[in-house]
Design brief:
α3 packs antiparallel against α4, α3 runs parallel beside α5 and α4 runs antiparallel to α5. 56% of the residues lie in helices and 12% in strands. It starts with a strand and ends in a 6-residue tail after the last helix. The chain contains eight helices and five strands. A five-stranded parallel beta sheet has the order 2-3-1-4-5, with helices on both faces. The longest helix is centred in the first third of the chain and has 26 residues. It has one domain: 3-Layer(aba) Sandwich (Rossmann fold). The protein has 205 residues and is α/β, with parallel strands linked by helices.
Length: 205
């Protein structure tokens, strides 16, 4: 079983991944942020480093999917390969932060990679308003996120909401993060776990 958690920056993907990993005793695959050689440069100069960052994430997430399928184990994944292709890269291009030449090359790379991947059995989307995202980003205090622009988060949110309404790759569970404090309230986490169990018809039990 492969569960993936999608959501904007600061929506709580890593926190929920860790909590579900502990609850289900599954293997977690986290987003590669600490060892990412482009993140700091990207937030300092998005236009210069956008293509490099997106290609790095494409390679990294493709490797994750290969490892997940090879392992044959139950896995919870922090962020999906689809978010880069359908949300982050198009957003950077639309904002003039990635050239059309680089964007087209990236899209061609993704289409090639997509032929060799399978979607997750269940996608969990953490939906959050921009004020909620900003609050959680400030709480965790990552230095490289200090320069994130509000319009950047807003545009990403709009693209996430549009993508999720058309998502047809498999089962989908939407969690309203503004009204579910799963990081601190056990009852709220319990609601998510109950919904996951219902979505997969008891296969977790």
């Amino acid at each position: 079983m492969h569960i993936a958690i999608a959501g904007n920056i600061g929506s709580g993907k890593t926190t929920l991944t860790a909590k579900l990993e502990k609850h289900y005793d599954w293997i977690a695959h986290y987003e590669d942020t600490d060892d990412n050689p482009y993140l700091n440069d990207f937030y300092d100069d998005m236009q210069r480093w956008s293509y490099n960052l997106q290609v790095y994430f494409l390679r990294s997430r493709f490797q994750q999917i290969v490892d997940i399928r090879k392992s044959g184990k139950n896995v919870i994944q922090d962020r999906t390969i689809y978010e880069d292709a359908h949300i982050f890269a198009p957003n950077l291009h639309a904002m003039g932060l990635m050239s059309t030449r680089d964007f087209n090359n990236y899209q061609d790379l993704f289409k090639l990679v997509a032929q060799f991947i399978q979607p997750p059995d269940l996608l969990i989307y953490l939906k959050a308003t921009v004020p909620c995202l900003v609050n959680q980003i400030q709480k965790r205090g990552r230095e490289y996120e200090n320069n994130i622009r509000l319009d950047y988060l807003k545009r990403l949110n709009e693209r996430y909401d549009a993508w999720v309404t058309t998502y047809d790759q498999g089962k989908l569970l939407v969690v309203d993060v503004d009204n579910n404090n799963f990081s601190e309230v056990p009852e709220d986490l319990g609601k998510i776990i109950h919904s996951i169990d219902a979505e997969v018809h008891g296969l977790f039990k």
